[in-house]
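Priority: medium. Attachment 1 of 2:
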C-alpha cells in the first residue's frame, strides 16, 4: 500500500508493517537534478509533518517531511554516495528511510496515488502515468 502526502512524500507499508518513505516523481521533477541529501540517523523519532531530511538540487533546496509518526529503523545509505538515485527512481530504489510506525491511524490521512496525481498541475499529472 503506497500512499502520498500533499507535500509530495510517499509512504509504503510492507507486510510486516514497516514503512518506506521517499519523495514523489513530481517532487523530483520540480527540484531538478538532485545533488545532495542530508538524512537523519537511525533510531531518531519524528512526528507526522516534521522535517526529517534536507535535499539540495540545481534548482532549489527543500525539506522532506515525515508522512506518519515513527522511529527511523534504516536509512538508504546509497543516497549519501549516489544522490542521483533520487533523480532516476524516487519512488523505488531512491527511497530515503524506513520507519517503525507509532500510530497506524495516521495512514488514514494519506491519499492514494490516483488521488494524489489529480492534485498536480494538469500537464505534470499526465506525465506521471
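Attachment 2 of 2:
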Amino acid at each position: 500500500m503506497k500512499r502520498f502526502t500533499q507535500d509530495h512524500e510517499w509512504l509504503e507499508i510492507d507486510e510486516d508493517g514497516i514503512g518506506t518513505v521517499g519523495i514523489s516523481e513530481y517532487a523530483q521533477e520540480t527540484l531538478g537534478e538532485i545533488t545532495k541529501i542530508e538524512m537523519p540517523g537511525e533510531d531518531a523519532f519524528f512526528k507526522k509533518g516534521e522535517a526529517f531530511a534536507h535535499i539540495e538540487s540545481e534548482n532549489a533546496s527543500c525539506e522532506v517531511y515525515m508522512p506518519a509518526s515513527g522511529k527511523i529503523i534504516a536509512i538508504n545509505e546509497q543516497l549519501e554516495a549516489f544522490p542521483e538515485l533520487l533523480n532516476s527512481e524516487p519512488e523505488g530504489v531512491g527511497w530515503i528511510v524506513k520507519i517503525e510506525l507509532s500510530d497506524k491511524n495516521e495512514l488514514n490521512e494519506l491519499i492514494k496515488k490516483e488521488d494524489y496525481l489529480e492534485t498536480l498541475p494538469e500537464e505534470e499529472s499526465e506525465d506521471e502515468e
